[in-house]
C-alpha cells in the first residue's frame, strides 16, 4: 500500500509530495509518484528529489497530446500496480478533468479542491477539508472506498526541501492506450504579458472601487514602482472585461500566495478571499471602514483610493529620486 501523487505539472507534483510525505508517515506506507506522458523517462530524479520513494513511469507516444480519456487509462493502470490507500491529484485544468473520470472508473469517491488533508490513524481514513457554497463554509469529507482520492489546487502546500542525493525505485508500467475519437486540429500559444500571477511575489489587485478602466493606470504605475504584478477581483475580469482572466484572483480565478498582496478598492467577498487569503502579508485600501477585506488584512488604509494611490506613488518616487 502507498500514498500516490500525480500531476503533469512537476512544480505541483513537488507540492503534493511534501504533503504526501506527511500522510505516508501517518499511514506507515511508502510515498509514490506517477510520471505519465510521452518522452517522460529521465524525469524521475525530479520526483525523487522532492521525496518520492517509488516512481511509476508510463511513457507512451499516444500520451504526447493530453486527452483525459487516455490519461485516465494510464493512471488506472498505475493504481492497479501501486495499490494506493490515498491518491492525490493536482487540481490543474488537466487534473480536474482526469480525477473525476478516474474515480468513476475505479468506483470510488473524490474530494475536489481540498485545502487541508489529514489522516485518521485509527480508521486509516483521509480527511479532506474543502471550501463549499462559494467558500462560505468549509466541508469536511472522507471516503470509505479506496483509493481515497483528493484533488489539491496548486500552491496549497509548500514544496519540501530539494534533496539531489535522494534515490528511489523506478517501476515502468505498460499500458494499452485506447484510440481516441477526436484529434487536435490546431494549437495556438496563449499570449502572456509578464509573470504568471500564481508565481508573483508581489501583487497589487484592483476591484470595483475603480470608477473606469483608464483609472487602472494608477495601480499599474504603483505596481511598476514596487515590481508587483497586477491582479483583480472577479467583476473587473468577468463582468467589466477591463483585464484578461489571467489577472483574476479568487475562488473561480487563480489562487495566489505572494509575499505581499495589496487589495485596492476590493470589498473582500468570500469568493475573492478564497484566492488570496494565504498571502504572507495582506494590505487593504478601501474607503469603507466596514469592508470585509479589513478582517483579513495585516495593514489597512481607510481612504479614497484616488487619494491614497497617488500619495503612495509620489512617496515612492521621492525615495527613488
List keywords for this structure.
five-stranded parallel β-sheet
Radius of gyration computed on alpha carbons: 22 Å
Query: Which structural class do you get from the secondary structure elements?
Result: alpha/beta
Hey, roughly how much beta strand do the residues contain?
Answer: 15-25%
Strand numbers in spatial order across the main sheet: 5-9-4-1-2-3-10
How helix-rich are the residues, as a percent range? Answer: 25-40%
Q: List low-confidence stretches.
A: none
Query: What does the largest sheet look like?
Result: 7 strands, parallel
Number of beta-strand segments: 15
Please report the distance between the alpha carbons of the first and last residues: 63 Å
Number of helices: 9
User: What is the typical, i.e. mean, pLDDT?
Assistant: 94
Order of helices and strands: EHEHEHEHEEEEEEEHEHEHEHEH
Shape: elongated
What does this structure look like?
With 321 residues, the protein is of the alpha/beta class. The chain has 9 helices and 15 strands. A 7-stranded parallel sheet has the order 5-9-4-1-2-3-10. A 5-stranded parallel sheet has the order 12-11-13-14-15. α3 packs across α4 and α5 packs parallel to α9. The termini are far apart.
Amino acid at each position: 500500500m502507498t500514498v500516490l501523487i500525480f500531476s503533469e505539472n512537476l512544480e505541483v507534483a513537488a507540492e503534493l509530495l511534501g504533503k504526501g510525505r506527511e500522510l505516508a508517515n501517518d499511514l506507515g506506507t511508502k510515498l509514490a509518484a506517477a510520471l505519465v506522458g510521452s518522452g517522460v523517462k529521465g524525469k524521475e530524479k525530479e520526483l525523487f528529489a522532492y521525496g518520492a520513494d517509488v516512481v511509476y513511469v508510463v511513457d507512451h507516444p499516444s500520451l504526447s497530446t493530453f486527452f483525459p480519456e487516455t490519461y485516465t487509462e494510464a493512471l488506472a493502470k498505475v493504481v492497479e500496480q501501486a495499490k494506493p490507500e490515498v491518491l492525490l491529484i493536482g487540481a490543474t485544468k488537466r487534473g480536474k478533468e482526469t480525477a473525476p473520470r478516474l474515480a468513476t472508473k475505479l468506483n470510488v469517491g473524490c474530494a475536489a479542491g481540498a485545502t487541508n488533508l489529514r489522516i485518521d490513524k485509527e480508521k486509516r481514513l483521509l480527511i479532506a477539508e474543502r471550501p463549499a457554497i462559494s467558500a462560505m463554509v468549509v466541508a469536511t469529507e472522507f471516503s470509505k472506498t479506496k483509493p481515497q482520492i483528493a484533488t489539491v489546487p496548486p500552491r496549497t502546500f509548500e514544496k519540501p526541501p530539494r534533496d539531489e542525493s535522494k534515490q528511489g525505485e523506478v517501476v515502468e508500467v505498460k499500458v494499452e492506450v485506447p484510440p481516441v475519437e477526436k484529434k487536435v486540429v490546431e494549437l495556438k500559444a496563449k499570449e502572456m504579458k509578464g509573470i504568471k500571477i500564481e508565481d508573483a511575489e508581489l501583487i497589487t489587485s484592483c476591484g470595483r472601487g475603480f470608477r473606469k478602466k483608464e483609472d487602472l493606470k494608477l495601480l499599474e504605475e504603483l505596481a511598476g514602482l514596487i515590481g508587483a504584478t497586477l491582479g483583480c477581483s472577479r467583476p473587473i475580469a468577468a463582468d467589466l472585461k477591463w483585464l484578461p482572466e489571467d489577472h483574476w484572483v479568487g475562488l473561480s480565478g487563480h489562487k495566489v500566495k505572494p509575499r505581499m498582496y495589496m487589495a485596492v478598492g476590493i470589498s473582500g467577498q468570500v469568493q475573492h478571499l478564497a484566492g488570496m487569503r494565504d498571502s504572507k502579508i495582506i494590505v487593504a485600501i478601501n474607503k469603507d471602514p466596514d469592508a470585509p477585506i479589513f478582517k483579513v488584512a495585516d495593514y489597512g488604509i481607510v481612504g479614497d483610493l484616488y487619494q491614497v494611490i497617488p500619495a503612495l506613488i509620489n512617496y515612492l518616487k521621492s525615495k527613488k529620486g
